[in-house]
C-alpha cells in the first residue's frame, strides 16, 4: 500500500453529523423505560436503524420484535422512531399492551398531513422507499388515498384517481436533490400537483446532506458511518459521490474500513447518519490516525439546536416518580 507523505494527509469531519433530535429522544425513551419499569422492555422493530444502538439496548434488557403479536399481553412495548400505522396501534390496544410511542414528531407531522389531505379526498403521491418502515406507517394512515412513488422510474407509471386533486408528501430521510427532481417530473405529468404545506424531508436529513457536500468537494474518499438499512445514512454516500468524492462507503464502524480505500488518498471526509452514536465516529478517527491521518478538521456547515421532549407516556410516569 502506498501512503502519501504524512504532512499531506488530513481528515475533514462534517458537522452536523450523527444523532438527530428524533433519534436521541427514541433511544432515551427505551433507556428511561428500562430504568422506570425494569427489563424486559419490548421494542417493535429497530428503535433506530443502527446495529450498535440495537445491540447496546439489547444488553440492557430491551427485546426487539418484528410485530406486536410477539409481545406478551400486558407488557410494555416501544414503537420505533420511524412511526407505525393506526392498525399497529389498534393491534397493541387489542392485546392490552402498554405502549410508548417514540415516533419522531417530524414523522407524526407527515402522518397528520396524510390524514388531512385524505379527509379532503386528495390522492397523495408519497415519495419514498418501498418497504421502509416509515413509508409503511405513513401509508397506513390513508391506504386508499396514498400512492407510493419510489424513485424517478415510478413517475411515469403511478396511477391517480383525479389529477386535479393531487398532493405530494415524502419520507423524511430522502435525498433533497433527488426528491426535487422527482417532484419536477411529477409536475410535468400532473401540472396541478400541489406541494406539502412544509418540508417533509426533515431538518436533520437536510443539514447532514449540506454538510457532506462541503467535505466531499475536498475529499477523495468520504467514509459515512451508519448501518446498511439506514435511509438517511445511505443517502449521504450518494450525495458525497455526486458532489466530488471519488469514492464513498457506508460502514457500521471502523472495523469495516479497508486499507486499500486509503491508497493514494490525501483527504478523507468523515460523517455519520442520524442514527449513529458519536463513539463510532471516534473509532473511525482513531483508526485513520493510526494510518497517518492524524490532522483532523471539523467543518461546520449549519448549526443545530433542535430538541424534542420525551414521549408523553414516559413524562407522566417520570413526574409521578413511578
Ligand atoms: O434513515 P432512516 O429513516 O432509515 O432511519 P434511521 O433510524 O437511520 O435514522 C433516523 C431515524 C429514525
Ligand atoms: Fe426525526 Fe429526521 Fe431524525 Fe427521522 S431523521 S428521527 S424525521 S429528526
Polypeptide structure, described:
Keywords: 4Fe-4S, Iron, Iron-sulfur, Isoprene biosynthesis, Metal-binding, Oxidoreductase. Catalyzes the conversion of 1-hydroxy-2-methyl-2-(E)-butenyl 4-diphosphate (HMBPP) into a mixture of isopentenyl diphosphate (IPP) and dimethylallyl diphosphate (DMAPP). Acts in the terminal step of the DOXP/MEP pathway for isoprenoid precursor biosynthesis. 37% of the residues lie in helices and 18% in strands. The longest helix has 17 residues, at 21-37. The chain is built from ten helices and twelve strands. The radius of gyration is 21 Å and the shape is flat. The strands form three sheets. Strands 10-9-11-1-12 form a five-stranded parallel β-sheet, sandwiched between helices. Strands 3-2-4-5 form a four-stranded parallel β-sheet, sandwiched between helices. It is an alpha/beta fold. Residues 20-23, 81, 104, 106-107, 172-173, 202, 204-205, 232, 274 line the site of iron/sulfur cluster.
